Amino acid sequence: MTEILLAFTFATFFLALSPGPDNIFVLTLSVTHGFRYGLATIAGLMTGCFVHATYMAFGISALLIQWPVLLYGIQFFGAAYLLYLAYQVFRSPAEIGEASVDAQAPLLIAMYKKGFLMNVLNPKVSLFFIAFFPGFLFESSWPFWLQIYTLTALFIVVSSFVFGSIALAGGVFTQALKRPGVGQVMKWVQILVFVGIAVYLMVVEPTIPELG
Predict the structure, then answer these.
(1) Are 173 and 96 in contact, with CB atoms under 8 Å apart?
(2) What does the DSSP 8-state code read for residue 138?
(3) Which of the pair, 133 or 186, is modelled with greater confidence?
(4) N or C: lower Cβ tally within 10 Å for the chain?
(5) How far apart are CA 207 and CA 96, in angstroms?
(6) Longest dimension (CA), the chain
(7) Which residue segment(s) compose the domain that 178 sits in?
(8) Residue 73 lies in a domain
(9) Per the confidence metrics, is the pTM higher than 0.70?
(10) CA 184: distance to chain centroid?
């Protein structure tokens, strides 16, 4: 059991570290708003991972494989949400740095929601879990759902550590980038990130694992 869980830990670490939509999303928001807001985004992403794990533990994820129209429907809504975020950034003022005291709590909640919805509306996460987790089932005497939740807890801890490090690095640059003109550049970087992830959701064909 220990060897399998260690292998899963290392695999998760390197997967979280490799460039992808989630860590680019975290880095961009951390640079723009600060470390705490990056952490709020990570909390939302990890809550979404828990939802996908629940889908898998109880067989709901299998519907995405059996009914591709459901898969593409969720992908569409996920991409539409990201384009909506890009539009929101486009309409907002070009600012870098933490919000005022009165606006901090609402912005933290907004960052959490962004992370959660971006993750939960990405069916590729469910497909990834279906393809990745079964190779690390570690104890035949445990119920399937309990093994999935155990692996998910480990996945969330490791991914949060990696993403938290990325958010910390991004937050360091927040103050350094508070210069004339930089806010406008970061505004367009955010827009391009949101649009890019939306295109990724719709254009890149998901790898659909076979059941059984």
Answers:
(1) no
(2) -
(3) 133
(4) C
(5) 37
(6) 61
(7) 20-203
(8) yes
(9) yes
(10) 25
